[in-house]
Every structure is written in C-alpha cells, then in structure tokens.
Amino acid sequence: MLHLSLFLIFGAICITGAINLLVQRHPINSALSLVVVMGSLAVEYLLLGAEFVAAVQVIVYAGAVMVLFVFVIMLLNAGEEEQTSGSRVAILFGIPGMIIGSVLLAWVLVARSGTGEVALGALPGSPRSIARLLFRDFLLPFEVTSVLVLIAIMGAVVLAARPEAVEHTKKEG
Amino acid sequence: MNVQTYIIVSLVKIVLTIFILLTAVAYSVWLERKVVGHMQNRWGPTRVGPFGLLQPLADGLKFIFKEDLTPPHVYKPLYIAAPMLAVVFALTSISVIPIGNAITVGKFSTPLQITDVNIGLLVVLGITSLGVYGVALAGWSSNSKYSLLGGLRASAQMVSYEISLGLSLIGVLILSGSLSLREIVLAQQGTYFGFIPRWFFFQGQCFAFFVYLTSAYAETNRIPFDLPEAETELVAGYHTEYSSMKFAMFFMAEYANMITVACLATILFFGGWLGPMFGPAWLQQTVLPVLYFIAKVFVFIFVYIWVRGTLPRFRYDQLMAFGWKYLLPLAIANLVITALIVALRS
User: Fold this and answer.
1) Is there a domain that residue A49 lies in?
2) Does residue A64 form part of some domain?
3) Of the candidates B275, B288, B262, which has an alpha carbon nearest to the alpha carbon of residue B31?
4) Contact B250, B83 (CB under 8 A)
C-alpha cells in the first residue's frame, strides 16, 4: 500500500516536472524541471527494486549530465525564450497521437505482464547481476558501445578545435 | 521490529545525527580558526568562553540577527533555494555513514547509522554529486559577475574531479566486493604480522587514497582548490551576494561536506571504527569503535586545516590540468593494477 502510494506520488511529480519543463520560459527553469524528472524517475526505479540503476540515474543524469546543461545555460547567459502559440499541426495530431500511444502502451504492458507487485530484490537489479550481464553475457556489445562513445568524443574534439589552436599545440609539443 | 518502533528509532537517530553533525560543523570552524591562527603566530578566537570555545555559538547568534539583504535584480526563487539545496544535500549525505557497531540493549539492536543500505557508497556519491546545484545556482541567480564566475568554476571543477574521485574508490570496491559501507569496514578486519592493520590503505590502495583525498579537497572547494571563492579575484565567489543566515547555510554545507569526506576516507581506507580492542565487552562493542571512528575523522579534519594553512591556491588552468592529466590517469592505473592483482590471486 505504502509502496503503491509512493509510486503514484513520484509518478505524479515526474509528469508534473515534465509538463513544467515544456511550460517554463526560462531555460534554467526547464533544466531544473528536467532534474526533478530524473530524480523522481530514480525513485521509481528504487521502488521497482533496481537500486543500482536508481543510484546511477542520480549520479549520471541528475549529477553530471544536467549539471553540464545548467553549466552551458549559465555560460551562454541565455535569457527568457519567447512563447510561441505552437503550430496547429502539433495540436491537431500531436495530442491525439500522444493519447493513443500512451493508452496502447499501457494496455500492452498490463495485458502482457499484469499489475502484480514485485518484492524488492526479486528481479535482477543488484550491482552483481548487472555486472554479470554487462561483463559476461553482453561483453562484446558493451565494448563496441564504449568504442563508439570514444569515437564520438574524438569527433567532437576534432570538430570543436579551431585549426590555429591545433597549430599552436603542435609547435609547443 | 514492528513499524512503529522502526519509525521512532529512525526519527531519534535522524535528530541525533543532525544535532551531532551541526555541532561538529560548528566546532570544525572553531578548530580551523584556532589551528590556522596558531600556524600564523596568532591566537585565534580567545574572547568568548575558555579558549574561545563558545565562539561558534556567538557566530551563530550573530548570523541569525544580521540583516538579510537581498540585492536587486537577483532571480528570487533560485536565489532563495540555492543555499537550502546546498545545506540539504550536505546534511543528507551523512545518513548512510556507519560510525560504529550495532548498539544492543536487551533484545533490541540497531546499527549506528540512520540506515544500512546495500549501495551505501553510491548513495553518498549520488547525493554529493547533487550538491553542485546549490553552488552553481547561487552563482547564476545572484546576477553578479563575481558570483557567476564562481558558480561556473565550481560546476566545472566539481564535475571534473568527481570522475577521479569515483575511479579512486573502485579499487577499494574490488578488494571488498561490496558497496555497503558496513561491509567495506568489516572487510578490513585483522592485521599483518600482528601489528599492521589490514586497512585498505595498507593493502596497496595508498595511491587511490592520495587521488581520493586530492579530488575530495577539490570537490569541497577547499584550499588549494578553492577557486570558486578565490577572495583575491572574485571577492567571495558564488556567495558574494549572500548575507546573514543564507551565507551561514553555505558555510555549514561546506563544513558538513568536509566531515562527510573525512568519514568516507576513514571508512574506505582506514578501517572505519576498527582498532585495537581491550577491556570489558561493553567497551569493545560500543565505546571504543565510536571513539576510534571519531579520532580518525578528527585527524582528517586536522589535515584539511593543515593543508589550508600551508598551501597556496592553484591557478585555474593548473587545477584543470592537474585533475585531467595527473589524477585521472593515476586513478585509472590504480584501478587496472588492483583488478589485475585480484584476478591473478583468485
């Protein structure tokens, strides 16, 4: 009972944060609403028994990615955005589409897996089982992904570095 | 244990922990003023009470009664929320730190920490990684160039040093095989040759300890990494525009973070509450462990102050270069070597 009510409360916070993210006009308020979304998602993971994923969600998304977002907004000193009335196409197709999509998704999930409760620790969510999956069963995809990320980082560095800066470091080194 | 007792015991522990932590914060400030004073051939506080021991109380009263100025053109909601965020995250992160064995009274037994979770270390890291919002938002919402620069420096510095901080801890995790802080301490029991304790520091994690301590100083914005509040360049950095209790909140958050970092260093590298045991059972079970823990944390706080009294401040580019070019490779090397040794041993 406590479990379900906590789940519903944090689900509501999560959705409110997501709507607030769209409604707010100042980028920093939107970024902070996204932090709230991330935080309440972490709590939902925790309630589902995935304590490791919850902790990683907070450390990586709320603690690092969103800090960088806030950092960039601060650095650019972005001001208030203008509110547009939105496109008619989005209202005509977007809202019905969203409702149909979420109803379909909920229906499939309920029909496939039911709404039974899961005890904490019943499903594989501990660091040990995740590590088994990552470093034994799915080692190759995991390593390929890490190489992909490395390539992306190097690409970003090449694109961001100005030619004269590269020349400068060449002379120094 | 039924639900009512659980809730009551938890509430009592929370109130006690916050009370002890805030007292420790107040007296770390006193200790810092006293020690730095003596290092600089001054007396430090002497006027209020014997040895100036009531100085923290006087400071607290002064903070409460000072006028709370809000400069014009600040972004009010965040300007007010920022110090609260800083202090809330700083106080929350202590909740999973164990300071001793379980207390047993009759049939009833409870661990000496607010709650024992099996991902304790990740909880501490997660909460401290959120602490940067207090500093960054304070800098931005103050609408002043000094504050903004302080906030920018703080967020860049804390995100960079968090990586080497996290990596330096993985060696300990490999050796202990657990993320629970209580189990990490219990993995360090025993001695080598009867007198060298099997603390992780002596199990070859001394480089990791160096990386951890250095990154932790940067994470808590302490000298030699206190660029976010560098007085000579930025007036007071991110809290330039704050006064009265709001300023005090940042101050409390900084010292509470120092204490958390010292607790973590004690638990992860120096055996937590372990130490030579003697005397009757109640002494061995409860009193000595807590005393050992407090003594070790005190040593780390003293080292913090000592470093502050000794080292000058880095330049900003030196700070970034040091973090990325020296600490990070050192942490990775330590991780690889520890993993290799553990793999070869098993």
Assistant:
1) yes
2) yes
3) B262
4) yes
Instruction: Give a yes or no: residue B49 inside a domain.
Output: no
* Bond into A124 cis (ω within 30): no
- Picking from A116-120, B223-227, B256-260, which range would have the lowest pLDDT averaged per residue? A116-120
Q: At what angle do helices A27-47 and A2-23 cross, to 10 degrees?
A: 160
- Put simply, the answer to whether A74 touches B139 (Cβ < 8 Å) is yes
**Given this model, what pLDDT does residue A112 score?**
75
State the smallest CA–CA distance between residue A149 and chain B in angstroms. Answer: 17
**B13, part of any domain:** no
Closest C-alpha among B71, B153, B140, B248 to residue A76: B140
Query: Phi/psi at B191 (nearest 5 deg)?
Result: -140, 160
pLDDT score of A149 more than 90: yes
B179/A127 Cβ within 8 A: yes
Task: Identify whether residues A76 and A10 lie together within a single domain.
Answer: yes
Residue A61's domain is classified under what CATH number? 1.20.120.1200
Structural domain including B208 reads: 69-345
Residues A73 and A17 in one domain: yes
pLDDT tens-digit series, residues B194-251 = 777 778 777 778 888 889 999 988 888 877 888 777 777 777 778 788 888 888 888 8
In the block, tokens 């390593």 appear at A143
Share of chain B above pLDDT 70, in %: 99
**Residue A147 one-letter amino acid:** V
Is B53 within a domain?
no
Select the residue of A56, A64, A74 nearest B136 (Cβ to Cβ).
A74
As for how many domains chain B has, the answer is 1
- Looking at the predicted structure, is the pLDDT value of residue A120 above 70? no
**Mean pLDDT over the full length of chain B:** 84
What three-state secondary structure class fits B98?
Answer: coil
Q: What share of chain B in percent tops pLDDT 90?
A: 3
State how far residue A115 is from chain B, nearest Cα, in angstroms. 26
Q: Residue A14 in contact with residue A5, Cβ under 8 Å?
A: no
The answer to whether B159 contacts A52, with C-beta atoms less than 8 Å apart, is no
Structure ipTM: 0.76
pLDDT of residue A145: 92
Distance from CA of A55 to the nearest CA of B (A): 6
Residues from chain B contacting residue A74 (CB–CB below 8 Å)? 136, 139-140, 148, 151-152, 155
Does A108 reside within a domain? no
DSSP assigned state of B258: H
**Is B318 among the domain residues?**
yes
Residue A92, domain member (yes or no) = no
Are both A76 and A137 inside the same structural domain? no
Total count of domains within chain A: 2
Question: B126, A58: Cβ pair inside 8 Å?
Answer: yes
Contact list in B for residue A75 (CB cut-off 8 A) is 152
| Mean pLDDT, rounded, for B30-38 | 89
Last residue of a domain, one of A80, A96, A111: A80
Please state the pTM of the whole predicted model: 0.83
Residue B197's pLDDT is what? 79
